[in-house]
# Entry
Amino acid sequence: MRVLNGIKGGKFLVVGRVGMDFCPDPPGTPVQLGEVFVAGMGGSAANTAAGLVKLGQEAALVTCVSDDAVGDFCRQQLKNYDIDDRYVRTIQGEERTSLAVYESRLEDHKTVIYRNNAADFRMDLADVEAVDYGEFTALITAGTVFAAEPSRAATFRAFELARAAGIPIIFDVDYRPYSWSSAEEAENLLGRAAALSDVIVGNDEEFGFIAGDISEGLNAARKLAEGHTEIVVYKRGPEGAVTLTDNQEIITGIYPIEALKPTGAGDSFMAGFLASIAQGHALKEAILRGSACASIVVSKVGCAPAMPYPDELEAFLRAHPGPTSV
# Structure
């Protein structure tokens, strides 16, 4: 399978945003009562890249950051995580790097994401055409990159270049309504990106959104798997996941845990899933290990900082009685 061979190469080109996260400390503190805030790297693409590198893979990020203290913070964080930042461009102008303020609590959890005039949407054709795709074995992106121009056209161009280089395209639907001008536009463009992808990961609501009907999400996933898409992961929250590939459906459970916060699970799942394939695990086992990574991240403060290292993941799997049966 060409897709699995690409993932097993372990050299990932990740297209999308990096941002700065703030949360009040100690955990459980609501934002309005916060006096001390902890900063960390965020942004779905950067989180996934960090998770991959922490699990022993290589990752480079393609994006833009603003020429200010927040952009500088993000660049330094990428270096701290050993993420290749040579395709990260610092831009001048009024655009700003994403900033998120979130709470490390479940009850009444609040997250505020500042993405007005987002710097990462300035990624353009020149940025993606500067990449040597022959250096990488797979491309990863998430849906937010398609929400505005020139990032949208640039990412579709990156898909073309990845396809020409023979490396698989891995797409996390990651639908976030606040990023889009309309639901209709999002449905059209996310569907187009999915049709071009070799691996698609999304939850039941996201597949339902692509299908135009929440009740048709699984059918939409099945139709994609019947086409050229080789792996479709249909996540069902606490009910686990259905993975469609090679005319089979693999049903897996989750690893229940006492969560500290709801954020970061999807990015950690993606990193754990792909890293596990790269390390030689069978597809079902890779899905379960990705689920374990998601559980680990929601139990800790931060997103990129909470991504597990191999010894943490193995210790979790040894100690946890899961996964749930389905």
